[in-house]
Amino acid sequence: MSKRSRVLTWGLPAVGLATLVVSSFAVILDRPVRLAEQPPRQPTTAPTEPFGTDSRAFIGAIGVVEPPDEAIQIAAHVPGVVESLLVGLGDRVEAGQPLLRIDTRRAARKVDRRRAALQLAEAELEALRAQVTPAMARVESAKASVAAAEAALTTVRAELDDRRNRLRIAESIDDPRAIASEEIDARRFAVQRAEGSAAEAQSRIAQVVGSLAEAEAELSLLQAGDQDGPDVRAAAARVAQAASELAAAETDLELATVRSPIDAVVIQRNIRVGEFAEARSNSAGILTLSPDGPKHIRVQIDEVDIPRFNPDAKAIGSPRGNPGLRIPLTLAYVEPLVVAKTNLSGRTSELIDTRVLRVVYEFPDETGGIVFGQQIDVYIEAAPIGEGS
User: Fold this and answer.
1) Which of 177, 192, 243, 389 has the fewest CB atoms within 10 Å, measured from its CB?
2) Is residue 267 part of a domain?
């Protein structure tokens, strides 16, 4: 019993200790050997060499490469289905060159209708102007008829006066044997017929005067002196209105073709033939154009670094993934309005409480491997507090 207690007391711990030692050696011998690995790309380092100063004496910011004076987001003037795309990515376009065309069938039919309406209005105007000469002839004819009726009335009145004079002479003879009563009656009847003829001539004058007034009224609607009358002016106004509506329809047809506003290069295309183009503000645009000129880098400087920013300070940029490339930058302009910082999405709904100053730099054209939208690490020589502008 005492021998078993000795084994349990000293043997088991000895076995455990031996097991621990052997296990430790096994772990040490089987431990994997890891060699030092190089990072896939070198991290960006402070540009102390170009600045010749401590790395803390510069402003670090992120810039995005963009076309000069920013990219132009082309939108459609009118909504519709894209009928044809006339340019491709990378194509160089000139100002006024067609870029794409919206379905023009409806606009073309509207132009045809407006052109037909204009032709009808012009025909009506010509018809009215052609009526001027006949209306003038009718007025002259009516005037001649009035003159003839007045002459006839004068003749009839003279004959009436003669008949009345003869009747007066016959009635003034007292001797009934000198003139027969039948002769007196005949002369009296002749006076009555002459009076009837005079009344008829007077009525004829009123009739031809009315016809003259009607002809003159018709002529006045067509011509007022040396100018057009109200009917002709109204027809001319309808012609002008039809011409204006035709011009508006032709403008709508022309707006179906989107043209380049400047000489540029197509760098993005966000629509295809058969897709619907909306005529509204769109951050992406249906086409994106890059104006000619050196590429720009838009840099956002944090508001806390604004006091240290000096527009005349030296600046360099390094593309992401190539920190060894140091690109000298030249200040293009500074946007004086400090705005809320936005991420790459550019959404205005982002909740960001940081404000930034946007500064735009140029870099040499011969710099290769830089594309629009690429992020660039930018370092700007900082001015001591109080010396920045």
Assistant:
1) 177
2) no
